[in-house]
């Protein structure tokens, strides 16, 4: 039988040799994690971009059929470097895995619908570190424009934060996707709303950068009457942009993606703000 003294010596040895070092390591790891997080936020605040936005291990893959759809249907994906294409494919796969796709009015959801919609969301958030949208868990797809019992109007698309859903008329989504230079793209517009709303409700690094950029954009416009007048007079942005701040950003986003050269040429400061908000440094942007 071990004596009390020997037991105490054994316990003290156990504490000093194992428990204390483990405790120090745990505290050290926690402190290091907090310091890294503080550094990342400081870096983002100063340079207006995340320290890093992409992961380089354990990347998901699409099925062969889904990959062919992505490659054939999405010009933005084709213009990326091979390294960025791997990241893009991973994020499209994650969107499909983590969101529920629901066909309405007996619509059968296909891989084309899943990949094309997921690729639009991925494109817009590709510069984000935290790219998954908390306010979207369900993608509802109607065959065409649908009637809303709430406001008694036909809709082509909407974001419903209460239901954590984004809704599309597939006919109109596809039409906007197929014509890439008319600045009318339902998918970009509605995901623009989702990104804007998501950033307003979060404090991650990408949301911080987005919100700072949007505040900079609105301050710039409020303090430059001539720019506001030029915006309206140019008719480059459709009139719907001036409905409210959310529609303004969503319309600007359509133009930013579909006609970036013209956007940059006509309104370079706005273009710079948009590019910074999205951390968009890909393809020809």
Automatic annotation (TrEMBL):
Q: Which residues cross the membrane?
A: 15-36
Q: Which InterPro entries match?
A: MtfA_fam, MtfA_N
Recorded hits in SUPFAM superfamilies, A to Z, give: Metalloproteases ('zincins'), catalytic domain (SSF55486)
| Keyword Transmembrane part of the UniProt annotation | yes
Specify the domain of life of the species encoding this protein: Bacteria
Q: Where is the signal peptide?
A: none
A single Gene Ontology MF term assigned here is: aminopeptidase activity
GO cellular component terms attached to this protein's record: cytosol
Its protein name is Zinc-dependent peptidase
| Keywords assigned by UniProt, alphabetized | Membrane, Transmembrane, Transmembrane helix
Q: List the Pfam families.
A: Peptidase_M90
């Amino acid at each position: 039988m071990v004596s009390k003294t020997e037991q105490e010596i054994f316990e003290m040895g156990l504490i000093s040799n194992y428990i204390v070092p483990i405790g120090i390591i745990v505290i050290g790891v926690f402190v290091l994690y907090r310091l890294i997080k503080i550094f990342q936020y400081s870096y983002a605040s100063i340079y207006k971009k995340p320290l890093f936005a992409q992961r380089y291990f354990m990347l998901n893959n699409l099925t062969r059929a889904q990959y062919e759809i992505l490659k054939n249907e999405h010009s933005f994906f084709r213009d990326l470097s091979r390294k960025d294409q791997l990241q893009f494919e991973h994020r499209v796969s994650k969107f499909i895995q983590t969101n529920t796709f629901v066909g309405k009015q007996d619509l059968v959801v296909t891989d084309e619908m899943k990949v094309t919609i997921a690729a639009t969301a991925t494109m817009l958030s590709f510069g984000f570190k935290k790219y998954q949208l908390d306010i979207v868990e369900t993608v509802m797809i109607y065959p065409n424009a649908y009637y809303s019992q709430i406001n008694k109007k036909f809709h082509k698309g909407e974001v419903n934060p209460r239901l954590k859903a984004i809704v599309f008329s597939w006919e109109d989504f596809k039409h906007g996707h197929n014509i890439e230079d008319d600045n009318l793209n339902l998918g970009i517009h509605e995901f623009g709303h989702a990104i804007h709303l998501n950033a307003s409700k979060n404090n991650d690094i990408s949301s911080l950068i987005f919100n700072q950029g949007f505040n900079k954009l609105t301050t710039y416009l409020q303090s430059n009457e001539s720019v506001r007048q030029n915006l309206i007079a140019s008719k480059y942005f459709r009139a719907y942009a001036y409905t409210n701040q959310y529609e303004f950003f969503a319309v600007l986003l359509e133009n930013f993606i579909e006609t970036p050269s013209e956007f940059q040429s006509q309104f370079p400061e706005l273009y710079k703000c948009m590019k910074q908000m999205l951390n968009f440094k890909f393809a020809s942007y």
